[in-house]
Design a protein that fits this description.
The chain is mainly β. The chain has one domain: TolB, C-terminal domain (Neuraminidase), CATH 2.120.10. The chain has one helix at about 5, and strands at about 25, 30-35, 45-50, 55-60, 70-80, 85-90, 100, 105-110, 110-115, 120-130, 135-140, 145-150, 155-160, 165-170, 175-180, 185-190, 195, 205-215, 220-230, 230-235, 240-245, 250-255, 260-265, 275, 280-285, 290-295. A five-stranded mixed sheet has the order 1-23-22-21-20, with no helix packed on it. Strands 15, 16, 17, 18 and 19 form a five-stranded antiparallel sheet that branches. The protein starts with a helix and ends with a strand.
């Protein structure tokens, strides 16, 4: 499908046309380097900081993604997969997506974004989001601006100059779940699905992918080459996109040439995957199994 190249425009220097590729099952089983279960309770997201040489994990804890009590927390893990601090930062309700800018973590927590100082190991600032319904993922551009999805709305928010505002409201991004950006050209949003029940989070229709221009957010391309209850999205050192489906547990790749392949199945609850390029690892939080898988790329 010729629109697929837009999803990879920030990876490829030039691309004139890419034909539609069907998802091809190529399951060979992942090579798990190590897994972590200690202190991990319904993990939703994980990120690696090369600067600090640590992994940071958001734990929903109660298992309720709409939790109202302050039972969620962040864990800190060493780069060789050892728990450093199980409950490193507490006071969250149901923390989800994580982004890093310098020494700070930005973490979504249902209707707010929490800024955490890594070096000081404490919450530095809280950004309440009026009318937010289900803040999910976050990503940062090259200028340090933070973009936040709201799965139960058609809005993407942005933190700029230490203030949070609505950045985009458009039906084409309704149900946005995972976010990824190349930092200067595009944001890619994976979508959970259409007509999501706000109480059960069950979607009546399959989600797809939206590619949004950072320079002109009204330039949006919807790509349907991969559909499902899509969750995490990341890119590896070769420019290949990795995308997870929470419901089925499938993990897919999309190559520079636009080919979509099913790589393996890890079971329902495969959440906000990410890539530690410096370590050559795919990081997979498994919410229902209470563990993190570190898979060799």
């Amino acid at each position: 499908m010729k629109y697929v190249f837009l999803i990879l425009a920030f990876i490829l220097v030039s691309c004139s046309s890419i034909k539609k590729k069907n998802a091809v099952a190529t399951e060979v089983g992942p090579e798990v380097v190590f897994e972590v279960t200690q202190g991990i309770l319904h993990p939703e997201s994980i990120i690696y900081s090369p600067k600090h040489e640590k992994f940071f994990v958001s734990n929903v804890s109660s298992g309720n993604p709409l939790e109202t009590k302050s039972v969620g927390y962040l864990s800190k893990i060493s780069k060789d997969g050892k728990i450093v601090t199980e409950k490193w930062i507490t006071g969250f309700k149901a923390p989800k997506g994580i982004a890093i800018v310098g020494d700070d973590l930005y973490v979504t927590d249902i209707n707010r974004v929490v800024k955490v100082s890594i070096s000081k190991a404490k919450i530095a600032k809280v950004f309440p989001v009026k009318n937010a319904k289900f803040l999910n993922d976050v990503t940062a551009d090259n200028e340090g601006n933070i973009y936040i999805s709201d799965t139960l709305s058609d809005i993407i928010y942005r933190i700029k100059d230490n203030k949070i505002d609505q950045w985009l409201k458009d039906d084409r991004v309704a149900g946005s779940h995972g976010l990824y950006t190349d930092g200067k050209e595009h944001i890619i949003a994976t979508k959970w699905g259409a007509d999501v029940d706000p109480k059960t989070l069950v979607a009546k229709g399959l989600g797809d992918i939206a590619v949004i221009s950072l320079k002109n957010q009204n330039e949006i391309t919807v790509v349907k080459d991969l559909q499902g209850q899509l969750d995490g999205i990341a890119v590896d050192g070769k420019g290949t996109l990795w995308i997870s489906d929470w419901i089925t547990g499938n993990v897919f790749t999309m190559t520079k040439q636009g080919k979509v392949s099913k790589m393996f199945n890890l079971g329902q609850g495969t959440a906000d995957i990410s890539v530690a390029r410096e370590l050559g690892l795919l990081l997979v939080p498994q919410m229902l199994q209470n563990k993190i898988l570190f898979i060799k790329l």
